[in-house]
Amino acid sequence: MATAFDWKSVPLDRVGPDHGIGTPAAKLPDPDLGTGKIPAARYTSKDYMAREWAAMWTKVWLLGAREELIPDAGDWLSHEVGTESFIFVRQADGEVKGFFNVCPHRGNRLVPKDASGFANSFRCGYHHWEWQTDGGLKNIPDRETFSQLQDAAVDCALGLKEVRTDRWGGFVWFTMNRQAESLRDFLGVIPEHLDPYKFEAMKLIDWKTIRWDCNWKTSVDAFNETYHVQGIHPELLSWLDDWNVQIDCLGIHNRYLVPFTTPSPRYEDQATPSPMMHGFAQLHGVDPADYEGRPRQLRLAIQKAKRAIQHDSIYPYAGLNDDQLSDDYHYMIFPNVTMNIYGETMLMFVSRPHPTDPDKMLFDLLNFAHLAPGTPHQFPEHTTYDHGQISLGQVLDQDAFNLPVVQEGMHSAAYDGLILGSQELRIRHFHKVLEDYVGPD
Ligand code: FES
Ligand SMILES: [Fe+2]
């Protein structure tokens, strides 16, 4: 009797041994995180949401602002996370300070939410209290009517409340936690792994925010496994290997490495390069006709084509390993930053919690690219949309359509928690880190 084709044993081809350049690619040992269910209440309960805020969001480092959007002294950008709003403003010395976006007088927001602009000073619109851009108090109209504010010594306490900021990768990061470790310690191996891509030299080319009807973790989860490709994105199976995916837990962060331009071993036609693969191949001067009967080799041909031009390219190919020339190096920076990373571009998702409702969130989509010197570039307008108001492209539309349905299902009396397999190890790892912050359920 003939044995059935064992697609799960189809290996991933490699050009050769790692040349010792680029992002470390070695598989790390998987931590033993058990097999228990992850309680659904983490996604649905207001009580858990409040605990998450107090013990996690207010303790970790978070992504604040893209540096290129606030290049000059006085440039500012506001950013919301949960119940808080923050202002990031470029200082005269080139540093970036972060402040809670709230007026100490009666609590008005100083600047609009999710906005940007230039300021010589911040003046509250309600009663015109005013601050310098370094947060120091500048003026209180009719100050003599505040008997408690007559002593100049109180000026210091009336400065804007600052958050700690630091910078990495062309981004301003911040934390509400005065006692937090340094950003470098929080990021762990992330800079070492991702600096070869030169994010700080990339340009932001697309930036939008969508209101989604799901918990922020429902969104994070959806991008941390390729197990759902067969169900939600079946068309990707013709050019992406969802099975030979290396997962690594990197301290509190994690990653998976997804081979592109190679058919999934699940895909029925292992003999013909798919139309999508044709597109990728032609883009890099590779003739797909040469790969009839052996489409898995196309990925290696693309790697070789990019390696051949590495010194004449605007892309940082010379500092990347072979697999990085074709694949998606996909990283998650705890708690809410997801990065699809390629040699040329980086597609970033930031999943932000709603202020009060565990069934709602803000999804930020930011697209970055290395542009040739002299390429005209305008910063994209940042707009916030409702779910379904615009298309995010086929793949993200598929994810976005599914997420509210998952969120709804998690409220069912018949559903009590996530059952996770080894392809979903990143989700289990994420929950272990979350639990280390928030405590047991
Ligand atoms: S609330 Fe801002 S000046 Fe009164
Ligand atoms: Fe997806």
Summarize the entry for a quick read.
By secondary structure, the chain is of the alpha+beta class.
What does this structure look like?
- The protein has 441 residues and is of the alpha+beta class.
- It folds into two domains: 289 residues, Naphthalene 1,2-dioxygenase Alpha Subunit, Chain A, domain 1, CATH 3.90.380.10; 118 residues, Rieske [2Fe-2S] iron-sulphur domain (Rieske Iron-sulfur Protein, 3-layer Sandwich).
- Helix content is 20%, strand content 24%.
- The termini are far apart.
- Bound molecules: FE2/S2 (inorganic) cluster (FES) and fe (ii) ion.
- The site of fe (ii) ion has 5 residues, from loops.
Summarize the topology:
Blueprint: E1 38-39, H1 41-44, H2 46-57, E2 62-66, E3 75-81, E4 84-90, E5 96-100, E6 116-118, E7 121-123, E8 130-132, E9 137-139, E10 162-168, E11 171-175, H3 183-187, H4 190-194, E12 203-212, H5 216-222, H6 229-232, E13 246-250, E14 253-258, H7 275-283, H8 298-308, E15 328-333, E16 337-341, E17 345-353, E18 361-369, E19 383-386, H9 394-409, E20 417-418, H10 425-438
Parallel strand pairs: 12-19
Antiparallel strand pairs: 1-20, 2-11, 3-4, 3-6, 4-5, 5-10, 7-8, 8-9, 10-11, 12-18, 13-14, 14-15, 15-16, 16-17, 17-18
Fe (ii) ion (FE2) binds next to loops.
The CATH class name of the largest domain reads Alpha Beta
Q: Could you please say which CATH topology of the largest domain applies here?
A: Naphthalene 1,2-dioxygenase Alpha Subunit, Chain A, domain 1
CATH superfamily of the largest domain: Naphthalene 1,2-dioxygenase Alpha Subunit, Chain A, domain 1
Characterize the biggest β-sheet.
8 strands, mixed
* Model regions low in confidence, pLDDT < 50 over at least 5 residues: none
